[in-house]
Amino acid sequence: MTPEQRQELMRLLEKGDDISPEWARILFPPEKREYELVYYGKDREEDIIADTLAVPLQPVRTFGRNGVDWHNKLIFGDNLQVMKTLLEMKKKGELRNEDGTDGVRLVYIDPPFSTQQEFKGTEDQKAYQDKIAGALFVEFIRKRLVFLKALLADNGSLYIHLDTRKSHYIKIILDELLNEGRFENEIIWKRSSAHSDSSTFANLHDSILFYRRGVDSVFNPVYQPYSEDYIDERYKHKEADGRRYLDRDLSSTGLKGGGYLYEWKGITQQWRCPRETMKRYEIENRLYYTKKGVARYKQYLDEMPGVALQDIWLDINAVNSQAKERVGYPTQKPESLIDRIIRSSSNEGDLVLDAFAGSGTVCAVAEKLGRRWIGIDCGKLAIYAIQKRMLDLKKGIGNKGAKLTPKPFTLYNAGLYDFSKLKELSWPEWRFFALQLFGCRDEKHKIGGIEFDGYRQGQSVMVFNHMEAKHKGACISEETIEEIHEAAGARVGNKIFIIAPALAFDFQQDYIDLDKIRYYALRIPYSMIHELHRREFTALKQPSDEMAVNDTVEAVGFDFIRTPELKYKVGTERPKGKLFEEGYIKIETFKSDAVVREPFKKKENLETLSMVMLDFDYDVESKVFAFDSVFYADALEKEDWVARFPIEQLGQKVMMIFLDIYGNEARVLIDAENFGLGKTKAKSRRKK
């Protein structure tokens, strides 16, 4: 710090002015590096981990029977908050590979590419805003890479899939986080066939950056078959049965330490192997003799693994519209691409993590290859797509072959919770959940004879035991706060946090001040005010059009599931200009009661609708929603809020999920007869 900076800092402190964020790098300079990427809003690694709120994982449903020591995880929530929770699990030894080592063996992520930013204004304004948007995107990715680095096992590997627009920035970030020496490859994947662009060279490839966490990271070489030209050129010889081979030199030329001098079939020279080995080769028909009678070794083609894989991958096509593995999710990556990565950098029983799970290709391939897996996504569409995919697996890559029943996996909510299920928890489970929910450290202690449950931001926390017999039906009143204050007094510091169900508080304010001590009421469901967070609570946003499915999404805090208000009509009709009748759903009312309030352009009270997902033949026995079609709000608005579909797709029961932009659902299960079909017709249309 320069003398001028010290004087300026003292002046600000004496005046009582706020210290701007720019002072952070001056007061707490980062580790000096030969070079680094500097931009506005770049936080220290320590601050990123410390300031991220860990959110509990609330089990929604387990598919298959629970594993003995592990079951795979599909998590709906913001990946940053989820990874903070996973990091705490790793520290407790709960995030392990099958061999007992802690941490994730392999991370593959395919984050949004930040290529859809649109700005208006002057060229200078646009240039400035582009830079800001770019910096925000880089920091968005960097924060997640900070956690992924911490989650990796010592011998783990990380692959990040990027396009050409941002890969150079992220490369520098990874060099800073993991060390430039841990960089192994930039893999070039040719994702599309040749095409022409009128204004530039056609862009056909993505980049996949491959880094190791440590020196001894797992790596299994992958080989490709030899080309026909190579085989014809090198493997010129054939046995009577058609088995191809090439002949290798058995002389000791170039062999360190010399060879073995003896005579073999009239030829005396230094041989590569001893006479006993040469005799064995003769018995095994491993010797080929030249015209001059010199013995050479037969190397059979079918014994060779192939050509070691290079860093340019031209042999894997993108998922086309007719592919058996296609799940209808934007930016879906082919199973053969992920298969190659998982085989290369993990072994059976190893833990694989995808923090931007999307269509679930990593989860599906990891399951097929016998790996453990964790998939995280903030989109309900992705979660339902993955759930259906995992329950419809085939053993072969590309989703071909015989059916594969997956090992047990559990769907979790993280950041958006079903409050009704919390009522089923025992008191120890409730207490733990409450502490985790508000980012508290679990550490019981007493002050003035009052028992507290832990600490939040260094201040004491009490979880009100509303389940205890003497407390059942009791409320936390202002008198209760005064009693705590009288017993604990000034020894508690300047803040106390009390966590309880919302209805347990007998006052409305968020805090009560007594003698310069502030007693916060942390209500469940959510009622945390801005002072408790460094930034205001934001929710996971669900897309309202297909182009927004892979947009960057970030949440802070949590909320509780609130079923939206819904009114609708269903039926069949023949639209104007169409030859056949179609089923339709007309949305009349959709109102979300989410905590977050935002100004919306009024759309006949449908402004919070994200999408409608349909399962045309819902299985009421398994109660698994396997969505067949999705209608985004943006497209529905253009059709006067009507979704149409061929009636021949309908089975006996139709499950409709109306999703708001915060992830809340209104679910409706109706008989196909409600669309005006007869019972017999509905039955005949069940999916095969």
Polypeptide structure, described:
Helix 4 (79-91) runs parallel beside helix 5 (123-151), helix 5 runs parallel beside helix 6 (167-178) and helix 9 (335-345) crosses helix 10 (361-368). Strands 1-20-2-17-16-3-4-6-5-15 form a ten-stranded mixed sheet, sandwiched between helices. Strands 22-23-24-25-27-26 form a six-stranded mixed sheet. It is globular. It has five domains: 3-50, no CATH class; 51-194 and 201-222 and 310-414, Vaccinia Virus protein VP39 (Rossmann fold, 3-Layer(aba) Sandwich), CATH 3.40.50; 228-307, no CATH class; 426-532; 561-684, Immunoglobulin-like, CATH 2.60.40. Helices cover 24% and strands 28% of the residues. The protein has 688 residues and is α/β, with parallel strands linked by helices. 32% of the residues are buried.
Q: Keywords, please?
A:
6-stranded mixed sheet; 688 residues; globular; 35 strands; 10-stranded mixed sheet; alpha/beta; single chain; Rossmann fold
